[in-house]
Amino acid sequence: MQVPKSMRFHSTKIPNELITYRERLGLTQEHVASALGLRRSKLLTRLEQDHRVPRFLTAIKLSAVYRVPIEFLFPQLYEKLRAEIRRREETIAARARAKEE
Q1: Which of 8, 28, 88, 101 is spaced 20 to 30 A from 38 at the CA atom?
Q2: pLDDT tens digits for range 7-63
């Protein structure tokens, strides 16, 4: 099964709030990397600086480490996806209404 183009975010640069939440908790990249089970902080550096979307499990772990929902860490991505879903829901509802008529 092919992933729709609109859902291919893994290598897309997207702003995030990872540094903000890490610094609010007074954590270093090394502390967070260790909590994530990483040997080095290089991945975390890339996520913070390159604004790349992490893999799903890494995003969940980051959410747990920073004690905030994932959408707080990636607010622009969340809003983009939410708006896309709402548009699709409206289309589905309009089609359902048209079938009823």
Answers
A1: 8
A2: 555 556 788 999 999 999 999 999 999 999 999 999 999 999 877 778 999 999 999
pTM score = 0.78
Which residues are within 8 A (CB) of 46 and not within 5 positions of it... i.e. 6 or more apart? 52
* CATH number of the domain enclosing 65: 1.10.260.40
Residue 86 placed within a domain: yes
**What's the average model confidence in pLDDT over 58-86?**
96
Separation between Cα atoms, residue 88 and residue 61, nearest integer Å: 29
Q: How confident is the model at residue 5 (pLDDT cuts 50, 70, 90)?
A: low
48 contacts 92 by C-beta, under 8 angstroms: no
Burial 14-42 (b: 16+ CB within 10 A, else e): eebbbeebbeeeebebeebbeebebeebe
Phi, psi of 13 (to 5 degrees): -80, 125
- Six token digits for residue 22: 């890490």
